[in-house]
Amino acid sequence: xxxxxxxxxxxxxxxxxxxxxxxxxxxxxxxxxxxxxxxxxxxxxxxxxxxxxxxxxxxxxxxxxxxxxxxxxxxxxxxxxxxxxxxxxxxxxxxxxxxxxxxxxxxxxxxxxxxxxxxxxxxxxxxxxxxxxxxxxxxxxxxxxxxxxxxxxxxxxxxxxxxxxxxxxxxxxxxxxxxxxxxxxxxxxxxxxxxxxxxxxxxxxxxxxxxxxxxxxxxxxxxxxxxxxxxxxxxxxxxxxxxxxxxxx
Length: 249
Hints:
Elements: H1 11-24, H2 37-44, H3 48-60, E1 64-67, E2 71-74, H4 79-91, H5 96-120, H6 123-138, H7 143-159, H8 165-174, H9 177-187, H10 191-207, H11 211-235
Antiparallel strand pairs: 1-2
Helix pairs in contact: 1-3, 2-3, 4-8, 5-7, 5-10, 5-11, 6-7, 6-10, 7-8, 7-9, 9-11, 10-11
């Protein structure tokens, strides 16, 4: 099934990559039982330690299930297999510079996503976006839960593009936002109302089928969101107020 791997890379990573590629290409089917650890050692020409570490990595990704007494089985691929590892990595990096990086990444992507959504959305998409805004207006509860409604609105705009990859790309980033947004809402009182106002403007542009207006409203919304984040970081002592801002215009 597999051929020996070389020693130019960390062996466990190479083994994990080979198995993952076999799953993605259909060489190994969903639900199939993998060879035993002993057999994998022989096929790859590596130690049991390398095989066990490779299997641990694949299990952490949700790609295989290690069942004691039964064996190792390939699990079905889901969006979580893609987004969870990236989210876990990003979560370990959240700090002042990464907060700005997250917002900049959104500034690069989301205006264009809004532009496409204005041309591609259907009635179901519009209904979801309207419900998102109404839920945000009516919500009474913890800031982190309100922030999830906020991110759901942005995620549904990505869905409205009818491009299945875009929500997967954004989801790991959006999952970090409730923690960040909670601090912003605590330190910047007007942030919540500002988000609702701009979301309403973005939605109206999408409803009108106006790509350029949707792009413009989303761009300005994220400029203001960045300003709120920078204010929060100053209050929290996360950045030096004397540092010059990066220019993303």
